[in-house]
Design goal:
CATH topology: Rossmann fold
Strand order of the largest sheet: 1-2-4-3-5-6-7-8
Number of helices: 10
Radius of gyration: 18 Å
Order of helices and strands: HHHEEEHEHEHEHHEHEH
Number of domains: 1
Length: 301
């Protein structure tokens, strides 16, 4: 069964009225997530550096506790359609504080207004900016990881593979319940559709982000369609009651088969989206600290 804290957290975000127009539904989800942010995630605790940045036209927010730290580029979730720097603000603060790494959270463009490959291009622009301007930002551009949750996890690992192909490999990737499979065919979809995220929601998200079906099995969209040899060491976190659970496990297995060092942790009694709810779910704080510890170990060299 779901953990009681997950059930209690669900009450903090009342479900919007059923909407038939997709644009209205996306707008309602965006407003819903923003409105519940404080209750779910708690107050913003201070760090020495919290500053909004313009990374060659892509907005972001930098968190840091020391000068010259390694840097993690973080990509928020939200089905490529909603979520923001604000909805992962507390999570990024905790990871920066616990890891000693700087965290640059990216405000990539959202679907359906901006479809594939716009978000991928935004993330690559940010990485180029970090490599070029890292010293001015006060970070070490020679030590870079990427991380993200849900749709942000999909963007993170797609970009990590593209960076490998461009001979500018990243040092580590941390993926929290990443979206991997555009076919929506894993068994967990049939088993777990009643726990907050379901097949229909993910179908709509994929259609909004990649409206052209023929593109959905491109390696830049479907991570399992790519050669995974030489991908960076990886942490994958999944949730027991998440429809994305099995595709995350399949991706972990595929990375291991390709010779990539992988740690895959399944958080029992949790559902999709738990990790950012630091104020109300104990396992969210544990997951943030696991991510921070993995980044600290990977980037402190």
């Amino acid at each position: 069964m779901l953990h009681p804290q997950v059930t209690a957290a669900a009450a903090l975000r009342p479900r919007p009225t059923e909407l038939t127009d997709p644009a209205d539904a996306v707008r309602a989800l965006r407003e819903d997530m923003e409105a519940s942010n404080e209750a779910e995630c708690g107050p913003a605790f201070p760090l020495p550096v919290v500053v909004d940045v313009d990374a060659d036209g892509v907005p972001g927010r930098l968190y840091a506790t020391s000068f010259g730290a390694p840097i993690v580029v973080y990509l928020h979730g939200g089905g490529w359609c909603y979520g923001s720097v604000e909805t992962v603000d507390r999570f990024c603060r905790r990871v920066a504080q616990r890891s000693g790494c700087a965290v640059l959270s990216v405000e990539y463009r959202l679907a359906p207004e901006h479809v594939f490959p716009a978000p991928v291009e935004d993330v690559e622009t940010v990485l180029s900016y970090v490599r070029k301007e890292g010293a001015a930002l006060g970070v070490d551009p020679a030590r870079i990881a990427i991380a993200g949750d849900s749709a942000g996890g999909q963007l993170a690992t797609v970009v990590a593979r593209r960076q490998r192909d461009a001979a500018t490999p990243l040092d580590f990737q941390a993926l929290i319940y990443p979206v991997i499979d555009p076919t929506l065919s894993s068994e967990s979809y049939a088993e777990l559709g009643g726990y907050g995220l379901d097949r229909e929601s993910m179908r709509l998200a994929w259609e909004a982000y990649v409206p052209e079906p023929s593109l959905r099995w491109s390696p830049d969209v479907a991570p399992l369609a790519a050669d995974l040899t030489g991908m960076p060491p990886t942490l994958i976190i999944t949730a027991e009651f998440d429809v994305l659970r099995d595709e995350g496990a399949d991706y972990a297995d595929a990375l291991v088969t390709a010779g990539v060092p992988v740690v895959h942790t399944v958080y029992a009694q949790m559902n999709h989206g738990f990790a950012r709810k630091l104020a109300v779910i104990d396992a969210a704080r544990a997951a943030a600290d696991q991510v921070a510890g993995a980044l600290r170990s990977a980037l402190t060299f």
